Amino acid sequence: MTDPHVTEVAAWAYTVPTDRPEGDGTLTWDSTTMVVVEARAADAVGTGWTWAPAAAAAVVDDLLAPVVTGRSAVAPRDAQAAMVAAVRNAGRPGLVGMAISAVDIALWDLGARLLGLPLTTWWGAEPRPVPVYGSGGFTTYPDDVLAEQLTGWIELGLPRVKIKIGESWGRRERRDLGRTALARRVVGDDAELYVDANGGYAVGQACRVGRALDGLGVSWFEEPVSSDDTVGLATVRAAVDADVAAGEYVATLADASRLVPVVDCLQVDVTRCGGYTEWFRIAALAAARGLDVSAHCAPYLSAPIAAATPRFRHIEWFHDHVRIARELVDGFADPVDGALLPLDAPGHGLALRHAEAERYRVA
To answer: Please, what's the b/e burial string for 44-67 (b: 16 or more CB within 10 A of its CB; e: otherwise)?
Structure first.
């Protein structure tokens, strides 16, 4: 084939209300915003997205699209390097990094579609089922709603589930432990039980709560303290039996390198870290240190690269992202036997339903 070039990059933002109030140990929210990017070349369209404020769409339009348009549509790594260079004065982490991620995902999808290959195959791997875990269990949920959600995941065949904790000291700390005990009763002794404090605890409290969680068979303690507190993460890791995990806010390879020595499993969010391009670099760093990698959120976008990643542990089957994808995206599928199989289609096989999404459009 001739070398096609990117002819257009466009972005839209959609804000979708939650199905009920949601919250964790540090934040509450009532909507989720999805910023979608489409990249075009020849007669193909590649799609990517991130979960970010609507302003990320303006970053795509103003800073990223001009440096990507006209480039080879089958050289996404070169395009990512150009985007990183273009945002030097805007700052790469956070909003800008999320915008880069969405464009990078769209470009990889575009290139694979032009080549007629599933992404996993283009990356030299055999598509395979990747384990997933149910994730939600928000602190805003009353006990009956929490139990209903947990039961639904078990009935779906997910042998791993995660709830939110980390609210505060005293009475709220007791509520964290009570909700975790409830979760254990609902899912039984055979399911893996995970918790996520979203950095809500101080170090001493995280150690104390973590030891109590050990007694409930919790095997995954996510962000017990802030991911910026690497000393604190190491302290908690030494004090508890559960695997300590962090990494969802990693924006660069350098960010990941600071977490690698202090966690048992490194989380990577393909919609935040710089897309598929940066994911592979981060995963290689983790593998070099003997660490597993876990995908934070965005399950459908994560499945193809998870299947091509060594030492990959599992994908987060996050309630909001699954719910929104089911409504707005073509190509979603349910896990089978606790695992998600990348789609047997060119690219990642996903596409936005523009007509259904239009009522949520904010940019």
So the answer is: bbbbbbbbbbbebbbbbbebbbeb
Fold of 122-347: TIM Barrel (3.20.20)
> What is 8-116+352-360's CATH topology?
Enolase-like; domain 1 (3.30.390)
In 3D space, the residue among 176, 151, 172 whose CA is nearest the CA of residue 161 turns out to be 151
Mean pLDDT in residue range 333-352: 95
pLDDT at position 65: 98
> Side chain identity at 136, as an amino acid letter?
G
pTM (whole model) above 0.70: yes
Domain coordinates of the chain in residue numbers?
Answer: 8-116+352-360, 122-347
The DSSP bridge pattern shows strands 351-352 and 329-330 to be antiparallel
- Token duo for residue 86: 């273009």
Token pair of 132 as six digits: 């997933």
**Measured at the alpha carbon of residue 86, what is the angle toward residues 83 and 87, in degrees to the nearest 5?**
95
CATH fold match for the domains 8-116+352-360 and 122-347? no
Q: Hunting for tokens 């996510």 — which residue is that?
A: 222
Structure token digits, residue 167: 């609210």
Identify the three-state secondary structure at position 303.
Answer: helix
